[in-house]
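Postdoc handover notes: sequence design on the structure in folder B. Input tokens:
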């Protein structure tokens, strides 16, 4: 399992980032705000959809979030 917010280097050299749903919600200042962030960024999302995610952000949402809010991942890039 990945850390609460970190990265793992795969054998092929690809770095996979992860983020807990609760971390993204805190950074966005709420569930509705997180959903709105995706929608405003061109990736439609609802509050209900966010509530149905597991403890980790779905992979596709993680990539979208890195596109929308790259500054949320700056500290991970240095690892």
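Designed sequence:
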């Amino acid at each position: 399992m990945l850390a609460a917010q970190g990265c793992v280097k795969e054998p092929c050299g690809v770095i996979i980032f992860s983020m807990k749903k609760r971390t993204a919600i805190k950074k966005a200042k709420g569930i509705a705000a997180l959903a709105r962030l995706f929608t405003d960024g061109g990736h439609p999302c609802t509050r209900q959809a966010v509530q149905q995610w597991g403890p980790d952000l779905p992979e596709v949402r993680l990539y979208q979030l890195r596109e929308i809010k790259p500054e949320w991942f700056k500290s991970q890039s240095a690892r």
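Context for whoever picks this up: The radius of gyration is 12 Å. Don't rerun without checking with the PI first.
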